[in-house]
User: Which sequence fits this backbone?
């Protein structure tokens, strides 16, 4: 069954009416679902198993067969912090894979050496859509939220992916994580003033191998390490 994440619906007497244009288009034009086919719909972590019954130009109607509540999960929310880049496919890849891994928040920061210093609302909306679609495809309970950080002083305390940091296995084995956030280097590396700030604020440095990883590789590996270390 295909999973869709949306809050654009109403429920009355176990009948659900979905008024999300994206879901309507996917079900009718792409997947070509008919009456009797089933889908999963999710909102705030709650999942509904729905048997489709009818449709019109603006909505889908169906019967709710089962409801699965959001699992009780005490896991701390995780954040991946990346730098702005003018390479659209790179940011989209990071957001997609971070969603599949299960990161809760993606913070896009203005780094000293970022090629671009401003990201448009349309770009943020595009990235949020990519997260939503990745969450649906991976059957994730939630799509990550995306926010912008323009000042280094506004960053939350984070582990910093850095080649001269401590080995991640040593950090995992010898101490409990002190933060659930990971900051990854920008395309053109850290500016000395940024490294100085991280040191002053006691942001722990963590290394993910002997070779220097590309930004997107470090983000994906780091996100996986962060999630699995919390388990």
Assistant:
């Amino acid at each position: 069954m295909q999973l869709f994440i949306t809050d654009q619906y109403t429920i009355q007497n176990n009948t659900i009416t979905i008024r999300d244009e994206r879901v309507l288009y996917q079900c009718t034009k792409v997947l070509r679902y008919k009456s009797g086919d089933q889908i999963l719909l999710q909102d705030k972590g709650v999942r509904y198993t729905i048997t489709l019954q009818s449709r019109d130009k603006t909505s889908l109607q169906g019967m709710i067969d089962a409801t699965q509540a959001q699992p009780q999960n005490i896991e701390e929310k995780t954040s991946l912090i990346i730098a702005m880049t003018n390479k659209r496919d790179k940011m989209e890849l990071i957001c997609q894979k971070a969603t599949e891994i299960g990161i809760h928040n993606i913070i896009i920061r203005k780094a000293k050496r970022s090629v671009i210093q401003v990201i448009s609302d349309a770009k943020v909306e595009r990235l949020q859509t990519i997260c939503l679609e990745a969450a649906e495809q991976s059957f994730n309970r939630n799509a990550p939220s995306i926010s912008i950080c323009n000042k280094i002083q506004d960053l939350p305390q984070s582990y910093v992916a850095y080649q001269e940091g401590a080995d991640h296995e040593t950090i995992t084995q010898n101490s409990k994580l002190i933060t659930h956030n990971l900051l990854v280097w920008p395309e053109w590396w850290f500016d000395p003033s940024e490294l100085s700030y991280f040191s002053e604020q006691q942001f722990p440095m963590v290394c993910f191998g002997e070779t220097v990883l590309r930004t997107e590789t470090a983000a994906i590996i780091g996100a996986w390490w962060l999630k699995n270390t919390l388990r």
